[in-house]
């Protein structure tokens, strides 16, 4: 698998707390986004079950790249979204701003289908990684505030009667610019949800847990 090949060839990965990721049943892994490539590869390599990652493709600049990336995401069963920030800043993209809503609606529907089927979905709520060769949003030690999309996914699933394990995941990088950086991936215990959890509360609790796990 590509994720395992990337990990084996490019990074030194240590995984902690893997027992917190359920082996079956609907699961939403909410992770820090540090590296544009290694984070997703590490999750795929570490978790011993199929991992579906919600990905943004607004960074793709050519029509050929768009077709190819969407085909790959379709084969993998990965939902695709377009980030509004990219268009606001006038960055070059193979997509148009008017397409954002259509992709968002489709991604939310696909996320619900995956969870109903008892699959594992991973999401990076910061939206942008610290290390990104195309779009830079923060330095290697900085964070972006978590966006509420993952909380919307959880809320919709729970309202539809799907029990979802909400698992926070942190990344800690040492020597990010080295040929083979050392990466620690930590999974925390699933966060319990009850009737008192609002969307804002879910975001707050999960973001705090992910930050702690990334120390």
Can you characterise this structure?
The protein is an alpha/beta fold. The chain has a single domain, classed as Glycerol-3-phosphate (1)-acyltransferase (3-Layer(aba) Sandwich), CATH 3.40.1130. Helix content is about 35%, strand content about 15%. A hairpin with a 7-residue loop joins strand 7 and strand 8. Helix 1 packs across helix 2 and helix 6 crosses helix 7. The longest helix is centred in the middle third of the chain and has 17 residues.
Short description:
The chain is α/β, with parallel strands linked by helices and 215 residues long. Helix content is 37%, strand content 17%.
Helix/strand layout:
Blueprint: H1 2-10, E1 12-16, E2 27-31, H2 38-46, E3 51-53, E4 55-56, H3 63-76, E5 80-81, H4 84-88, H5 100-116, E6 120-123, H6 149-159, E7 165-174, E8 182-187, H7 199-213
Provide tags for this entry.
single chain, 215 residues, alpha/beta, two-stranded parallel ribbon, 7 helices
| The CATH superfamily title | Glycerol-3-phosphate (1)-acyltransferase
Alpha-beta classification: alpha/beta
Q: What series of H and E elements makes up the topology?
A: HEEHEEHEHHEHEEH
CATH architecture: 3-Layer(aba) Sandwich
Which topology does CATH recognise? Glycerol-3-phosphate (1)-acyltransferase
- Describe the strand arrangement of the main beta sheet, using strand numbers: 1-8-7-2-6-3
Weakly predicted, low-confidence segments: none
> Helix content range of the residues, please?
25-40%
Give the total of domains: 1
Distance between the termini: 29 Å
Mean pLDDT: 91
- Count, helices: 7
> Which assembly state applies to the chains in this document?
single chain
Strand portion = 15-25%
What is the CATH class name?
Alpha Beta
The geometry reads as globular
Radius of gyration: 16 Å
Q: How many beta strands in the DSSP annotation?
A: 8
Characterize the biggest β-sheet.
Answer: 6 strands, mixed
